[in-house]
Amino acid sequence: MWLGLHRPHYVCHCAIFNFQSLLTVILLLICTCAYIGSLVPSLLDGNKTGLFAVFWKCARIGERKRPYVAVRCIVMAFSILFMQ
Predict the structure, then answer these.
(1) Phi-psi label, residue 53: left if phi above 0, alpha if psi -120 to 50, beta otherwise
(2) Contact 47/55 with Cβ under 8 angstroms?
(3) Measuring CA to CA, how many Å separate 57 from each of 1, 33, 52, 71, 79?
(4) What transmembrane ranges does the database entry give (predicted)?
(5) Where are the domains of the chain?
(6) Chunked in runs of 10, what are the mean pLDDT values of the chain (84 residues)?
(7) Do 55 and 28 form a contact (C-beta atoms < 8 A)?
């Protein structure tokens, strides 16, 4: 019975509450959108406004900041593999 006396025993390990996981999700979103945008440009170029504009913007970031995104992917992979 829950009377506010005890805390639940579960812990949410969502990407929202873990900063490194949130950065990983954002970085993967940028890389995925840039890759899809290079394969099928018409898929993202038609959605410059509205909800799907987030994917178009992520694709533009991935295309314009390609060296920085690549270095960040390598650093993130190294930190996930060897630092945790």
Answers:
(1) alpha
(2) yes
(3) 48, 9, 9, 20, 26
(4) 20-44
(5) 50-83
(6) 55 67 88 90 82 89 90 88 82
(7) no
